[in-house]
Predict the 3D structure of the following.
Amino acid sequence: MANVAVFNTDGQEVGTIDLNDAVFGVELNEHLVHMAVVAQLANKRQGTQKAKTRSEVSGGGKKPWRQKGTGHARQGSTRAPQWKGGGVVFAPVPRDYTMTLNKKEKRQALKIALTSRVQDNKFIVVDDFGMSEIKTRKMVQTLKNLKVEKALVVAQEGETNTVLSVRNIQGVKAASPKTINVYDILKYNTVVASRDAVSKIEEVYA
């Protein structure tokens, strides 16, 4: 069972916490994590891109010049791809990029991502963010005290002040135990979670 330090908002160690191995101590599987990230990014795509082929571009019905005797290369239409205003050779068309993973794979990939952060000492537990009001400056100072720059801040649901205090900090994103995902965990250098959020993560994903 992994044991990590618990800090206060001043960056001082105030205790330790045991992490559940069912969530934070699973076997690493890079391929599964890769599939989860690819699926997440693919599912964000709208798939609405469209360009016209030579058959869809208006005009070009008349042969621009006769076949022989002009000194020019033979041409059948002014809407061929080599002409200005012509169609696109292999034009993109609307399509669905959706990729699916089953629930067990998604859950396991998330556990692997969290485990990798713990093993790399990039998982910081804060006793309590203590945001009684919305103060971006205070949150910036807290992250500075923890020696963290690019971070994913995980706060318990209902901690609105914490979420709103993080919103305008560049390179920092807020999430709740139920909205964390593999891509964000890997994208941000460090995961900073409150003690209550850690308990909720273990409750939801164990």
Remarks:
- Residues 64 and 70 are 11 Å apart (CA to CA).
- The radius of gyration is 27 Å.
- The longest helix spans residues 103-119.
- The mean pLDDT is 93.
